Amino acid sequence: MELDYRFPAMSDLKARARRRVPRYIWEYLDSAEGNEGARARAEAALDAVELMPDILRGPVEADLGTTLLGRRYAAPFGIAPVGMSGAFWPDAEAILARTARAAEIPFCLSTVAATTPEEIAPHLGTQGWFQLYPSGDDAIRRDMLARAKEAGFHTLVLTVDVPLLSWRAREKRVRLKNPMALTPAILLQSALRPAWALGQLKRPALRPRIFDKYADPSAAGTEKHVGLALRVIPDWAYLETLRAEWEGPLVIKGVLDPGHVERLVAAGADAIWVSNHGGRQFEAAPAPLSALPAIREAAGPNLPILCDGSVRSGTDILRLIAHGADFVMLARAFHYGLGAAGAAGAAHVVRLLSEGLKLDMSQLGISTPGAVRGRLTAPLRQGRPFTPGQ
Ligand SMILES: Cc1cc2nc3c(=O)[nH]c(=O)nc-3n(C[C@H](O)[C@H](O)[C@H](O)COP(=O)(O)O)c2cc1C
Predict the structure, then answer these.
(1) Which of 332, 334, 335 to mutate for ligand 1's pocket (most ligand atoms within 8 Å of CB)?
(2) What would the pLDDT profile of 26-60 be if each residue is shown by its tens digit?
(3) Structural domain spans, the chain
(4) Ramachandran region, residue 254 (left: φ > 0; alpha: ψ -120 to 50; beta: rest)
(5) Mean pLDDT of 352-363
(6) Is 225 assigned a catalytic role?
(7) To test ligand 1's pocket by mutation, which of 28, 82, 250 has the most ligand atoms within 8 angstroms of CB?
(8) Other CB atoms closer than 10 Å to residue 205's CB: what's the count?
(9) Which fold does the domain 2-381 belong to in CATH?
(10) How many other CB atoms sit within 10 Å of the CB of residue 59?
């Protein structure tokens, strides 16, 4: 495949994407909070993990298929929610939904996507998860959940690590505002990226369209878009209410403290998503990988655990699974693919990850991703097998 040679690694997709989207959009996707330490530590923690290869195993048939929350996926990874994904690349949400359907992996639509659950449904098949930024208005919340369910989204993800919008310096430096102000600089940066700009001109105006039904978008005021105006900071009581309203699987996204696990499970969480929001919320947050073992220990062997953060390869996916994750999600990586080469780029991300997983699994002599838990070098060197939580 030609793309294998143009973009042999995620870093190649990233470099190309950077040259194809306007600078202010790039800063939105790529930045993190504070001095970006949480993001840097997530990467460093991944890089530091060694896995012990096996030898003389003969042929090993790698099966990437993974069951999560009652569904079978073709690989142990999926597409994490990105607000205003469609700003990064024209029609991003629909392209990613089709990518997920073709690859038989999950696609999680953000509440604040640039499209609606109804518009995405025809592209998605049965791969849809819906991520909720909670609305404080009971009727609107119930209606949003009903719309997601009706459109075929079967798994609900409640994001709990965004009490307030964070302060990202790189966004401020390029004067990215909410809602966006069309300054001369923004217009110039857009014009300098013709493929992106022409694609966006054909699309409806960029805003979180799910809220159009509840308020006149043009009347939402200049300080806050309507989604923010409707939003509430969730608490434990909110989780209980939500649990009572949503019949399908419920995933809690943004957990890092093992001390929260027991209460989340008691409140009806079906899975925990270990995440520091790609380092975008809190500079001092622990690296997801570092948080995983204690969370697995608190959760026991059977509670599904998802994880994300700075994943760039099949090797990174195995590193997280080795520390107790069952499933790994990626946000920026899929957008690097989109920015570099549109739909073909997003599909290429799936290929890089899947082929990388298969090659690594042959090195490790394992036929299922979960078997990597026995191949962490540190416990092996101490002469004892690794069990999650150690
Ligand atoms: C531009 C951008 C927007 C995001 N928007 C959302 C969102 O709307 N909801 C959410 O739960 N997480 C959101 N996230 C967080 C991702 O779902 C994910 O947790 C994180 O980015 C994972 O790290 P990665 O981008 O390095 O893969 C966003 C991330 C980025 C980069």
Answers:
(1) 332
(2) 999 999 999 999 999 999 999 999 999 999 999 99
(3) 2-381
(4) left
(5) 97
(6) no
(7) 82
(8) 9
(9) TIM Barrel (3.20.20)
(10) 5
